[in-house]
Amino acid sequence: MSAFNLLRHVTLRQLPFLAVCGFLLGLFQYLICAAVSSTNVGPALETMIRSLPPVLQNVLTTQFGGLSERGLLAFGWNHPIAQALGMAVAIVLAARAVAGEIESGAVEFLLGQPLSRTTYFATHVAFALTALAAMSLLAMAGTWIGLSVFHKPLFGAQQLLTLALNYFLLQSAWFGITLLFSVHGQEGGRIAGIGFLIALGSYFGQVVGRLWSDAAFVLPWTLHQYFSPQAILLEGAPVTASFATLGAVSIVAIGLAGWRFRRRDLP
């Protein structure tokens, strides 16, 4: 079996799942633009936030990046739905790459062909990173189309591309971390559960760290701290350090996973 045939096998297996997630992510970003454009969301949210305790007011204001249209659109990228769709693709692809194929028995057949472990691993990684890049571009397209349809030229193409890259790097990090567990396991569902728990812990760690000053020390250890749509779209703050951190996590995790996969025993 050649790398092309393996890629075809993976594509046919994963394409329906990826198509649904990509469509929902792009649609969600478009609907955020529609909601912001068609209703007076800012004053309504401001009234609601003023009724909350001061600590919660600070956290929500930080999450939204202000209650302007730009701030609400930026929050659309950090919304739990947007995060969950990206994490689902990253984690499921990583869990199925090794542990899932072992669980189904397909890995024995695939590696029984004239196909090296290095080629097998590299093909799965290339497919996953391409899928995550496509997801990021679909999200960007949803925002871009929404801004165009509703005549809201609030952000430039460079800002949206930078944000899409930041989103891609975050999901790539989740892919790498889950893949590192996948090359040690034999049950795809269990590995996916571990990956989701780690990602969920990171998301809540960021929220708690911003909510409670005594817990702020956890923020540098949460990957979500290095994904900031508000900094990119509203503040124009430098994001080189965030990109470098997420990229380093991805590269190291994938590299360690590849090293382990070439040396592990397969059932």
Explain this structure:
- This protein is an all-alpha fold and 267 residues long.
- The protein has one domain (3-29, 80-261).
- It has eleven helices and no strands.
- The protein has helices spanning 3-38, 41-50, 54-64, 69-78, 80-104, 106-111, 117-149, 157-182, 188-211, 229-235, 240-261.
- Helix 5 (80-104) packs antiparallel against helix 7 (117-149).
- The model has no long low-confidence stretch (mean pLDDT 84).
**How does the overall form come out from the CA principal axes?**
globular
Number of helices, where a helix is a run of at least 4 consecutive DSSP H or I residues: 11
Strand content range: under 5%
The proportion of residues forming helix, as a percent range, comes to: over 70%
Number of DSSP-assigned strands: 0
Unreliable stretches:
none
Indicate how many domains the architecture comprises: 1
Report the average pLDDT across residues: 84
End-to-end C-alpha gap: 20 Å
Which structural class fits the helix and strand makeup?
mainly alpha
Strand count, sense and closure of the main sheet?
none
Helix-strand topology string: HHHHHHHHHHH
Determine Rg (CA atoms, Å): 20 Å
Write the layout of secondary structure elements.
Layout: H1 3-38, H2 41-50, H3 54-64, H4 69-78, H5 80-104, H6 106-111, H7 117-149, H8 157-182, H9 188-211, H10 229-235, H11 240-261
Helix pairs in contact: 1-4, 1-5, 1-7, 4-10, 5-7, 5-8, 5-9, 7-8, 8-9, 8-11
